[in-house]
Structure of Oxidoreductase:
Amino acid sequence: MSSPELLSLKIVRRRDIAERVVALDLAAPDGAPLPAFTAGAHLDVHVAPGVTRCYSLWGDPADSRLYRIAVLLEPSGRGGSKAVHGGLPEGGAVTVGLPRNAFPLDEGAPHTLLLAGGIGITPLLAMAARLTAIGRPFALHAFFRSAAAAPLRDEAEQLAGTRLHVHLDDEPSSRLDLAALAAAQPPGTHAYVCGPRGFMEAAVAALRMRLPEGAIHTESFSPPEAEAGDRPFICDLARSGRSIPVPADRSLLSVLIESGLPMDWSCEQGLCGVCVTPVLGGVPDHRDHYLSPAERVGNTLMTPCCSRALTDRLVLDL
């Protein structure tokens, strides 16, 4: 099909499924089975020359014929969603990486609560399909601005059936008290939350009143914001001989790009590994979900999209 790490696939179906959301079904050109994926996994999609973005797989993991993704157009984004919406036609080719999972499903939980905000429904649909297949109890609550802005609602009804609960901002009767929902969860529940940052913060705050931290799992589609206590530091670039100050409220990646360095990047969340950079000095503050525990302990690699420095200076092989 292609190299061991990349797949050249055909866009066998493209359709608009909600306001500013397009869905793509990808298959092998010869119809061969695709490499398996697990619920919660994502694809690194090469949406344009030099532009790679991560998109969650929402289809049934048991279906080896298709990789299914859905992409929300972000007018203020850096071009990934615009490239998908403006290009990648049905019948065309697209290059993707092998599926990877930084948001895995605990299939042994006695009960699972899935909370989706908008396009965040995508990885949770794959979880709903898997939980249905193995006969585990779950509930999927999907929160949308309106019926017109509800991507994959029909597919969610097919996958989750009566376990799907839809809540629309413009229909007061369908709104839900997250605190009450969290309080009603049975012991042993694991919760999975995906959506816009504000939605996730509210959902996680409610869930923490009922569930232990280890039972709350999240995936955000937004770059991380600065954390309280983040400090400025100096990034020394060994090859170019430059020293660049990194403010407390800026990511290292954004500062490097602004400084004119030709950085490769994609997810901005430490998921994909595209921006992994060698470290020659200093100690990184690892905040990614990509590096192995051994790689973190070794401190010779880091993801500048989300990680920072524990030392006053950090030396990169750039």
